[in-house]
């Protein structure tokens, strides 16, 4: 059975007998059991131990989140990629600086002529949209080819359009195929050269690289009316993004408030790659935690499955006889509960260390926090599934509790025989009196509730319909028909059936215990829930 899908069979009440209701409730109990965690003390102990072990691994081996360390790694990768690309395109020399110069000369783009219009060498890669390694950047590169204009933002973050200078118009295509080639292929390889900075700075200071996809997207969105007036702290969004790109937002300051140059960490494409590198390092203990928990679950359940087969030797084992749904370490509430506990312990140790050491954000394992959030989400999903099945089960239990059947009649008969005070069983007419009393009890409540009278009245009509349709099966008499009496007819029916006898007191007791407005059916919304 697939634990992720809840299938509930709803049977019309006119076809339900007491045994049918018991069967439905039994099936729902089984579904609740399958959707609930079956973890025991050993599962919990291993989950906690794994969380502690991997939490200590994170503290002692992974260490602090460092953009500076990650950038060194990312810069080496980017530099190597630029050199390999240049070599594939015909570069015969050596050295990063020469490789960048080769690519710049081989793949020029017209918007480089607008460098002064977009803030000079320090900012034009961020403000000029054609230098963004995104779909938007590609679109504006093609627009430049067809319109002869460059697109970006000014110093205040407002959208800006300027003509390509005459000296750079030679880099605009002559016809449509040429424009498409230069706007896409030439543009791509030009961005490759810009990844490592310009030919004058590559390999020395790192130069002004291109912004990464995340920062590029943020800059593109910042020109929209909904974002352009937004502030981050004391800075406008455009100023904040410029500081992020330059790295001054991450820099430390001396006693005079001046930026310490060596602490500036530029957040260009290499900066974003450094984040990925550091997150990849953080992911190792998180993945180890998952592997330990899942391995224990699989080995233990597999051993339990083999034991249940009662095999005397290895040759007697038949793998097809094993219930693999209970062995596989994924897709069930038990493993979800174990992973929730282990990831919670892991994150608790990690965050506690960050607070104690006062390193706070740089010491937090963000991959671990994300894994814990996913585990909590899965746990909540399982809880909601169980809750929904329990609500449906409650509906059927309410229907069963408020259904008067021949079984109830037999019980009353046995009570009457044992007490020797006459029969307690109800005839068909006395059963009709019971349902009419319940009906008038509800009518009285509807008339006294102005705000919810309509809803309660709708429920009453639906209940009467179900009672009419199911009356014959309730009393196990296919010819039985339920009649609704007027007040006078009800008085006459009661008087005609000797109300001084015990049956009437039983009927009054049943009517007093009757609680209307219980669920009568299920409905499916637009999301198929």
Would you write up a description of this structure?
The protein is an all-alpha fold and 529 residues long. 60% of the residues lie in helices and 3% in strands. A hairpin with a 2-residue loop joins strand 3 and strand 4. Helix 11 crosses helix 13. The chain is elongated and about 110 Å long. 30% of the residues are buried. About 3% of the residues have low confidence.
Strand arrangement, major sheet? 1-2
User: What is the N-to-C succession of helices and strands?
Assistant: HHHHHHEEHHHEEHHHHHHHHHH
Largest sheet: 2 strands, antiparallel
Number of strands: 4
**Shape by Cα distribution:** elongated
Residue stretches low in confidence (pLDDT < 50, at least 5 long) are 10-18, 415-423
Count helical runs: 19
Given the helix and strand composition, which structural class is it? Answer: mainly alpha
Average pLDDT works out at 82
Distance between the termini: 19 Å
Please estimate the helix content. 55-70%
Radius of gyration: 38 Å
Proportion of residues in extended strands: under 5%
What is the element layout, followed by pairings?
Blueprint (H helix, E strand, L loop, with lengths): L17 H18 L5 H22 L4 H22 L7 H11 L13 H8 L7 H13 L1 E5 L5 E5 L12 H20 L17 H9 L3 H4 L2 E2 L2 E2 H10 L22 H40 L15 H4 L5 H24 L9 H36 L4 H14 L8 H21 L4 H22 L12 H10 L5 H12 L16
Helix pairs in contact: 1-14, 2-11, 2-13, 3-4, 3-11, 4-7, 6-7, 11-13, 11-14, 13-14, 16-17, 16-19
């Amino acid at each position: 059975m697939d634990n992720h899908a809840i299938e509930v069979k709803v049977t019309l009440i006119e076809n339900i007998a007491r045994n049918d209701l018991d069967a439905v409730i039994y099936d729902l109990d089984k579904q609740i059991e399958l959707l609930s965690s079956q973890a025991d003390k050993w599962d919990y102990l291993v989950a906690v131990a794994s969380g502690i072990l991997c939490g200590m691994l994170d503290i002692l081996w992974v260490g602090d989140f460092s953009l500076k360390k990650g950038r060194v790694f990312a810069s080496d990768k980017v530099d190597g990629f630029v050199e390999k690309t240049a070599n594939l395109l015909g570069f015969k020399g050596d050295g990063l600086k020469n490789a960048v110069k080769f690519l710049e000369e081989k793949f020029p783009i017209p918007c480089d002529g607008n460098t002064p219009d977009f803030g000079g060498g320090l900012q034009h890669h961020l403000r000029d949209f054609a230098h963004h390694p995104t779909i938007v950047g590609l679109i504006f590169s093609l627009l430049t080819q067809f319109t002869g204009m460059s697109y970006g933002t000014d110093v205040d973050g407002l959208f800006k359009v300027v003509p390509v200078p005459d000296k750079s118009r030679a880099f605009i295509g002559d016809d449509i195929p040429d424009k498409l080639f230069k706007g896409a292929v030439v543009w791509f390889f030009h961005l490759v050269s810009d990844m490592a900075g310009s030919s004058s700075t590559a390999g020395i200071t790192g130069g002004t690289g291109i912004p990464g996809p995340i920062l590029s997207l943020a800059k593109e969105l910042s020109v929209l009316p909904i974002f352009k007036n937004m502030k981050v702290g004391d800075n406008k969004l455009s100023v904040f993004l410029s500081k992020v790109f330059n790295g001054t937002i991450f820099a430390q300051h001396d006693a005079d408030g001046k930026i310490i140059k060596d602490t500036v960490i530029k957040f260009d494409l290499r900066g974003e790659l450094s984040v990925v590198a550091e997150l990849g390092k953080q992911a190792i203990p998180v993945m180890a935690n998952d592997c330990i928990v899942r391995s224990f679950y699989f080995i233990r359940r597999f051993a339990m499955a083999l034991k249940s087969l009662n095999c005397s030797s290895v040759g007697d084992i038949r793998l097809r006889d094993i219930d693999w749904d209970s062995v596989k370490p994924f897709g069930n509430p038990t493993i979800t509960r174990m992973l929730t506990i282990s990831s919670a312990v892991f994150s608790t140790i990690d965050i506690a260390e960050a607070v104690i050491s006062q390193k706070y954000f740089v010491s937090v394992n963000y991959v671990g926090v994300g894994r814990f959030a996913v585990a909590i989400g899965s746990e909540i999903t399982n809880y909601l599934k169980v809750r929904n099945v329990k609500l449906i089960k409650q509906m059927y239990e309410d229907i069963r509790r408020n259904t008067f059947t021949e079984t109830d009649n037999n019980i009353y008969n046995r009570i009457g025989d044992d007490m020797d005070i006459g029969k307690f069983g109800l005839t068909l007419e006395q059963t009709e009196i019971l349902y009419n009393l319940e009906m008038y009890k509800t009518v009285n409540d509807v008339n006294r509730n102005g705000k919810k009278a309509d809803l309660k009245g709708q429920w009453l009509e639906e209940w009467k319909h179900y009672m009419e349709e199911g009356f014959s099966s309730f009393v196990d008499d296919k010819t039985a028909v339920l009649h609704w009496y007027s007040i006078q007819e009800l008085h006459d029916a009661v008087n005609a059936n000797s109300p001084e006898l015990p049956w009437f007191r039983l009927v009054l007791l049943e009517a007093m215990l009757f609680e209307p407005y219980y669920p009568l059916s299920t409905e499916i919304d637009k999301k198929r829930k």
